[in-house]
Inverse folding.
């Protein structure tokens, strides 16, 4: 179901956590709310879920405004950051919990819970208690529990942050697969731009309670709207020119003879070998948008091998003019 | 009980089962010795103030006595006296009747303190938001302990007496014509005093259990469509079981061994096991009192055994 946020605001006393945001999430899409901690992304998610009251504005899910409805009447389900599995119930009973609360007869709810556990490949461990499961397994159970009541929207609060990097990538693939299979709307809160890029159809970059940019991942990466987005999404240099500010992708920077018309001289402050690429950090006072923040140029290993650089070297740094992307702020 | 231990996953032992290097084994032994040293002070206190008196009571319960002396000679007469007439089967013997009466107070007191204690703990743990306010309310709960429990009991007398505040008010309002007799020196007043004295012992462990419940579990329950009552029964109560069990053990043992409350609030008219022992002690019939105490200890242990069968404390803690 479509979700629409209409000048949604959350105030705690004098502080504004979410500042009148407007957003439309299409039905069946994977939306990531991305931002640093304290940017209001979790509060936004909790307001969609109904676990946080709305100070002003409204949440519209499908055809109706749900600002005042309890969570269970919104057609949403939430997966909590710490999974919040009931420690006294087995996996099966955890998953069946929502059905039990709705008065589904025992035999049927056990059957549906086991089917849901099979969907997340946890049917073998259905009789275990949460304490007897690993983090990844707990997460699968939490996912099954959220999905068992057939929600139209699944809300995920930093679902992958507690997992180790290897498992995180695997679960990421799995989340994407499930979303495709079920065809329901996923709203996923994360502070990892990599996760947002990999998963979403719609990336919503938030900062200070406002939306900086909401677009598909490619647009966000190729045409960041603001300096904040360019920095947060990574892989960009924010460059201050006399008349404007621009963002240039680090892998599009040119060094030495190819530097181009707007080249400036820069000093090499760090060289990091990364295998297929080499990251060169450069200090260029004329271009720096922020004092002390060096520019980064990502060179292919071949290009670097042709013109190796040493710390302290001075090089010309520039970019093809087509790669310069003008920033709004 | 042994089944309970078997169910606990024993990870540390599994880790030790691996063949250890000689140096490691010595280190483990040293650690173990250190652990015993660390446990020793408490162990000694237990020995001096718990095990020795208990052993003495047990020994004395088998001694003979007459009107003016205790004779250290083995006899089972004290126990035979406790259960005198109990095997004839016609009428209930005094001991059984006394135990039945005490058990009745146990049950009533337990049910009442559990209800009140759970409600208070629930309110403070889940409905009071600020930690400062929680602390203040908790301190208020302990106010009854600022005076001795005899004074706390006596304080009920002007309230509940025939011409007490309650009766005066009821008659003044025209609710009753004559004073209600059963308010004081009755089962009612005894249970009331137990609630007054023992509810805190229920509140503290239950509150402790409640504070350990992850608040996101409540949200998860709400998210799954549970009403507040369903959340209470399906999430909070099961997770409070250890607290409820500990509180119940406190209250049950306190009431089982009580003799003052039943005496004062029952107007010295209601029998209790503790009272029997106290009377025998006041007549210096120590062996008889000791035998009664041993039987009481057994009864309490059976009660607690049944309770821990219901809730596996070792697993829950």
């Amino acid at each position: 179901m479509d979700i629409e946020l209409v000048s949604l605001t959350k105030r705690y006393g004098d502080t504004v956590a979410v500042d009148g945001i407007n957003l439309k999430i299409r039905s069946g899409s994977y939306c990531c709310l991305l931002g640093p901690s304290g940017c209001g992304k979790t509060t936004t998610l909790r307001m969609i879920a109904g676990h946080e009251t709305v100070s002003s504005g409204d949440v519209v899910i499908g055809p109706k405004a749900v600002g005042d409805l309890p969570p269970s009447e919104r057609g949403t389900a939430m997966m909590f950051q710490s999974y919040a599995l009931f420690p006294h119930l087995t996996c099966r009973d955890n998953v069946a919990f929502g059905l039990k609360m709705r008065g589904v007869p025992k035999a049927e709810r056990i059957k549906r819970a086991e089917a849901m556990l099979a969907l997340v490949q946890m049917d073998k461990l259905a009789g275990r208690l949460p304490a007897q499961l690993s983090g990844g397994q707990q997460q699968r159970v939490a996912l099954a529990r959220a999905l068992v009541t057939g929600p139209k929207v699944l809300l995920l609060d930093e679902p992958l942050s507690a997992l180790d990097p290897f498992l995180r990538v695997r679960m990421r693939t799995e989340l994407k697969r499930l979303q495709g299979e079920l065809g329901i709307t996923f709203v996923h809160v994360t502070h990892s731009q990599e996760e947002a890029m990999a998963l979403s159809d719609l990336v919503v970059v938030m900062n200070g309670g406002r939306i900086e940019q909401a677009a598909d991942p490619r647009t966000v990466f190729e045409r960041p709207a603001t300096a904040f987005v360019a920095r947060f999404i990574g892989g960009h240099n924010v460059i201050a020119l006399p008349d404007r500010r621009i963002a240039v992708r680090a892998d599009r920077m040119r060094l030495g003879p190819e530097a181009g018309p707007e080249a400036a001289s820069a000093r090499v402050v760090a060289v990091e070998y990364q295998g297929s690429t080499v990251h060169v950090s450069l200090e260029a006072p004329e271009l720096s948008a922020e004092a002390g923040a060096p520019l980064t140029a990502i060179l292919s290993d071949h290009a670097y091998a042709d013109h190796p650089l040493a710390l302290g070297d001075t090089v010309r740094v520039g970019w093809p003019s087509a790669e310069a992307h003008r920033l709004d702020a | 009980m042994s089944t309970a231990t078997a169910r606990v996953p024993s990870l540390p032992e599994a880790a030790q089962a691996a063949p250890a290097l000689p140096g490691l084994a010595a280190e483990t032994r040293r650690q173990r010795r250190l652990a015993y040293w660390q446990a020793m002070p408490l162990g000694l206190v237990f020995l001096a103030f718990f095990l020795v008196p208990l052993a003495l009571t047990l020994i004395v319960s088998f001694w003979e006595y007459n009107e003016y002396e205790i004779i250290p000679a083995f006899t089972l007469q004290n126990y035979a006296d406790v259960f005198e007439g109990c095997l004839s089967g016609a009428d209930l013997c005094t001991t059984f009747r006394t135990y039945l009466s005490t058990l009745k107070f146990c049950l009533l007191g337990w049910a009442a303190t559990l209800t009140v204690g759970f409600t208070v703990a629930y309110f403070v743990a889940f409905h009071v938001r600020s930690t400062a306010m929680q602390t203040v309310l908790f301190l208020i709960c302990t106010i009854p302990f600022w005076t001795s429990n005899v004074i706390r009991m006596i304080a009920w007398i002007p309230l509940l007496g025939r011409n007490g505040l309650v009766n005066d008010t009821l008659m003044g309002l025209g609710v009753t014509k004559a004073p209600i007799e059963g308010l004081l020196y009755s089962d009612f007043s005894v249970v009331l005093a137990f609630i007054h004295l023992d509810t805190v012992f229920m509140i503290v462990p239950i509150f402790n259990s409640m504070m350990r419940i992850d608040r996101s579990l409540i949200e998860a329950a709400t998210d799954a469509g549970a009403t507040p009552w369903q959340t209470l029964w399906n999430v909070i109560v099961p997770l409070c079981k250890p607290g409820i069990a500990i509180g119940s053990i406190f209250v049950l043992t306190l009431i089982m061994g009580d003799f003052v409350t039943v005496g004062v609030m029952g107007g010295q008219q209601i029998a209790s096991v503790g009272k029997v022992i106290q009377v025998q002690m006041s007549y210096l019939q120590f062996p008889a009192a000791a035998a009664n105490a041993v039987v009481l200890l057994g009864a309490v242990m059976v009660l607690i055994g049944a309770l821990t069968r219901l809730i596996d404390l070792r697993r829950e803690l």
Notes: Chain A has a mean pLDDT of 88. Residues 160 and 168 of chain A are 6 Å apart (CA to CA). Residues 239-326 of chain A form a domain with the OB fold (Dihydrolipoamide Acetyltransferase, E2P) fold (CATH 2.40.50.100). The longest strand of chain A covers residues 15-25.
